[in-house]
Structure formats: structure tokens, C-alpha cells
Design a protein that fits this description.
The structure holds two protein chains of two kinds. The longest helix of chain A has 6 residues. By secondary structure, chain A is mainly beta. Chain B is mainly β. Chain B is 8% helix and 46% strand. In chain B, the strands form three sheets. In chain B, strands 3, 5, 6, 7, 8, 10 and 12 form a seven-stranded antiparallel sheet that branches. In chain B, strand 6 and strand 7 form a beta hairpin. In chain B, helix 1 crosses helix 2. The chains are: A mainly beta, B mainly beta. Chains A and B meet through strand 9 and helix 2 of A and helix 1 and strand 4 of B.
């Protein structure tokens, strides 16, 4: 007797934009949604997202978006990382390169990547100036709440964003940024 | 056309999984996220946690509140399911009757670290997808924990939490369990996959 065929379309749909908010909200924590200073120049913050299935987006262009505040200083870079064998941020998959924030609000830059693997990924943001403001899910502090509830990792002196992440083993105070993936 | 990426059967699990995720899904509530005293000396709270994919658990976590005191114990159990009982915790159509097989435990450890995660290094254990039970106990009512919930009975029951009482707050065997949502406090706990 033939088996019923499970269509890939029966998987969880991908609804863009895919934001770091969604991963965060699963933990029952309300996002701050207020702007705060980045705090530490060249600190990279990795925030997880969940992509329910692989994406081949051509001819659409992949955009990584960040929600920035009114104080604009230095440059920023955002990137997508896959995860390593433990689930921590692993290898850089796509990057916006170094960019200057245009104005307060969502700023997005394209990436030369039209294929994304499914599953756990990380969106990373690094700001070269500590006074650059970003809209935050939380100001993480060093208690580990954001890190363990939200799966957030940090890495010092990480501009430009490294090819392979080496996240800090300790809880570092940081702004957990609101980031998103979209296609255009 | 570029080669299409192959979806693994089990995408990598998030490094940390807290009991807040299942609590929020089951109750629709934001977590209490407030430091509160432990409700019962030597009381143990059994909180369900859903692990959607295979992972190796290397650490257990409990988020301490504004005061710490005495000894605590945190353990991970496989649940015992039974059918036909509705007076106890309900999980997504199944009924469960408390924890059964202990998979890992911290043993009795001094509650330490105010308003931060207390990290318990346990023997690594690979677990398959499914429901598990994180059990936390404290041997006094002075120590505080950050809670998923204060004492809303409906939330506790919807979530499927149970409580147990056993000497010293250290469940070293099958915990004894009883349902008393009016005194139930649900601590924020987590499992982690990094060393």
C-alpha cells in the first residue's frame, strides 16, 4: 500500500520578516522596545532566530535589518551565523559588511546570499561606537537572564564580524538588539 | 541553479531551554519574572519542560531571587504518563503523574548567587525529544526564586506543574507528589547544552 506523501508545504510556514522578537517572546518575556546605547565599542551580540525550513530566495534579495535609535555614530555590521555542534554561534554565513546607519528606525542592507539553511541561526550585530543607540529586547546585564532565556551570546573586539564566532563564556552586559531577516 | 540546501532531520537545538517556554505556550501568560520566597520548606516543584530535539544536557539552571538560604536541589526526570486521571497535571492531551525516572541531579547544593542564574554542573546526558520534568526543591522558606508564576492555580494546572514534598528538599528517589495549586510557586529553571 503506498504511503501518503508528506508535502514540504505542510511544514511551518516562513512568514517574513523573521525577527529576534519571535524567539524572545516564546520565553514569556516582553521586549523592552526602547532605544539604548550600544555600550561597548566593537562588542558583537548574537541573537538566535528559528527558520522552520531552508530558504532559496532568488531572485529575491536577502536583507538583514536592525532597529536603530536616534544617536548615530561609527559604523555597524550585521551578519547571519549558523550554529556549531553545541548550538552556539558558529560560522558566518552572510554579512551586510560595514555600514552607516541612515536614520532612526529600521535600517536594512542586502546580503549576497540567496540560500539559507533551516533551523537555529543567529543574527549578529556589532557597532564600532559605544554611543550608537539600538532598540532593545532587553538590557542584558550580567545575571544571565537574557543569555539563558534568550540564547544570547556576545564577543568582544569583534569588528569586523569574525568568520567563526568565539562567543564569551561569561555573561556580558549588553543591549540585546531587535534584528530581522527579510527579502525584497 | 545553485544546489538547494539539505534540511537536516533535526536542526540544532537552542543552547538553552527554559521551562518558561512551555509555560508561556500553555498558559498564554508572560512569566511573573519576580523574586518571591519559596512557599514550602522541603517542598519540590515539578515543572514540565519540552525538549523538541535531541540534545546533550550539560548544565541545569535555576534563577535565584533577592535572597538565598539553605540547600537546594535540581533534577531532571522523565515523566510517568497514565491515562484516565484528570485531577493531576495535564499535558497536551496526556496525563502525567509526576516524575518517575531521574536522569540527572545536582544533589544537595547550597543556594548561592543573588538575582542570577545558579548553574549546576551535572553529568552530561543525551536526551531524545519529548517532555521532561525539571524538579526544584529548597529546604527553607527564606530563600527566594524568580518565578514563572506566583500562585494562580489555573495557570499552574494549565501548565501541568505539580508539587512534591520530601525531606530536605532533595528528591533522591521518585519524588512524592501532591497537587496543591494554592501554595504552588513555579520557579524559573532551564537546561543547557554547553559545558
Amino acid at each position: 500500500m503506498p504511503r501518503p506523501w508528506l508535502s514540504l508545504d505542510q511544514q511551518e510556514p516562513i512568514i517574513a520578516p523573521i525577527t529576534t522578537h519571535s524567539f524572545w517572546a516564546r520565553q514569556g518575556l516582553a521586549p523592552l522596545n526602547t532605544a539604548g546605547a550600544w555600550g561597548t565599542a566593537n562588542l558583537a551580540v548574537y541573537v538566535p532566530i528559528w527558520l522552520p525550513k531552508p530558504v532559496y530566495s532568488a531572485p529575491k534579495t536577502l536583507i538583514i535589518n536592525g532597529w536603530f535609535g536616534g544617536t548615530i555614530a561609527g559604523t555597524v555590521e550585521m551578519a547571519i551565523y549558523n550554529c556549531d555542534s553545541e548550538g552556539k554561534p558558529g560560522t558566518k554565513y552572510a554579512t551586510t559588511g560595514s555600514q552607516t546607519v541612515g536614520a532612526q528606525g529600521w535600517n536594512g542592507w542586502s546580503c549576497a546570499k540567496d540560500i539559507l539553511p533551516g533551523g537555529l541561526l543567529y543574527l549578529a550585530l556589532v557597532c564600532t561606537n559605544s554611543t550608537q543607540t539600538v532598540y532593545r529586547l532587553l538590557q542584558a546585564g550580567t545575571t544571565g537572564l537574557a543569555q539563558i532565556m534568550g540564547g544570547v551570546f556576545t564577543q568582544a573586539a569583534a569588528s569586523p564580524l569574525p568568520a567563526t564566532a568565539t562567543p564569551s563564556a561569561s555573561f556580558v552586559d549588553c543591549a540585546v538588539p531587535a534584528l530581522a531577516l527579510s527579502w525584497t | 541553479m545553485p544546489q538547494f540546501p539539505v534540511q537536516t532531520k533535526e536542526p540544532r537545538q537552542a543552547v538553552f531551554i527554559s521551562n518558561a517556554e512551555w509555560y508561556t505556550r500553555m498558559t498564554g501568560r508572560a512569566i511573573d519574572n519576580t523574586s518571591r520566597t519559596w512557599s514550602t520548606t522541603n517542598g519540590n516543584t515539578l515543572t514540565p519542560i519540552f525538549i523538541p530535539r535531541s540534545m546533550t544536557i550539560k548544565k541545569l539552571y535555576a534563577y535565584n531571587g533577592a535572597a538565598v538560604s539553605g540547600n537546594c536541589c535540581i533534577s531532571l526526570y522523565a515523566p510517568r504518563y497514565i491515562a484516565g486521571r484528570t485531577s493531576i497535571g495535564a499535558l497536551n492531551g496526556f496525563f502525567w503523574e509526576g516524575a518517575m525516572t531521574r536522569l540527572m541531579t545536582s544533589g544537595a547544593v547550597a543556594q548561592a548567587g543573588i538575582s542570577q542564574w545558579q548553574i549546576f554542573d551535572v553529568t552530561d546526558r543525551f536526551v531524545t525529544p519529548g517532555f521532561y520534568v525539571l524538579v526544584y526543591g529548597l529546604n527553607n522558606t527564606t530563600g527566594q526564586m524568580v518565578m514563572l508564576s506566583d500562585t494562580p492555580p489555573s495557570s499552574a494546572v494549565n501548565y501541568g506543574a505539580l508539587i512534591a514534598s520530601e525531606g530536605n528538599g532533595v528528591p533522591h528517589g521518585d519524588p512524592l507528589y501532591s497537587v496543591n495549586p494554592t501554595t504552588m510557586r513555579l520557579p524559573l529553571l532551564a537546561v543547557g547544552g554547553i559545558a
